[in-house]
Amino acid sequence: MYGTNPFRELEALRREVDRLFEGVASPSKLRSAFLPGRSARSYPLINIQESGDDLTVEALAPGVDPASLEVAIEGGSLVIAGEKPRPAQNVSPEAWHRSERAAGRFLRKIKLSVPVDEENVTADYRNGVLTVKLQKADAAKPRRIAVNVA
């Protein structure tokens, strides 16, 4: 107990609370965690890769109704929305022994690190993974400058 610093612990708690509320624009846009028994996390979980002139976003979204998926670019952010269908409604509540798979609508807004060409975005959903390919805008692509030697 003598080695603990209460101010350091309070600062760590403040950072964690800030992280939880990061990106939440309003209470109506709260994201579902879909991870019962754990701290709130954004859904779907994502990986973002940058290669040359492209960004690739892979979103892990098993069980999502493909017809409900919506992908949009809004103000420098990628927005992914959709819905996981609810389990069979004809099962009585007493019949459930365990229910850990959440369902419902979700919305995830991801701030992009570079400007993208909104006309060159593709999205594919296969085997529970949504893959979004975004082409960088010309202004974000590296430009070679010739060096003049005198």
Mean pLDDT rating: 81
Please name the CATH topology of the domain at 27-87 and 101-140: Immunoglobulin-like
Name the CATH class of the domain at 27-87 and 101-140.
Mainly Beta
Order of helices and strands: HEEEEEEE
Strand content: 35-45%
| Span between termini | 68 Å
CATH architecture of the domain at 27-87 and 101-140: Sandwich
Computed Rg: 21 Å
- What is the oligomeric state here? single chain
Q: How many H/I helices?
A: 1
Query: Helical amount among residues, as a percent range?
Result: 10-25%
| Main pleated sheet | 4 strands, antiparallel
Main sheet strand line-up: 1-2-7-6
Low-confidence stretches: 25-40
The number of strands is 7
Which class do the helix and strand fractions yield? Answer: mainly beta
Structure notes:
The chain has one helix at residues 6-21, and strands spanning 45-51, 54-60, 70-74, 77-84, 104-111, 116-126, 129-136. The chain has 150 residues and is mainly beta. It has a domain at 27-87 and 101-140: Immunoglobulin-like, CATH 2.60.40.790.
Provide a concise account of the structure shown.
The protein has 1 helix and 7 strands; from the N terminus they run αβββββββ. By secondary structure, the protein is mostly beta strands. It is flat.
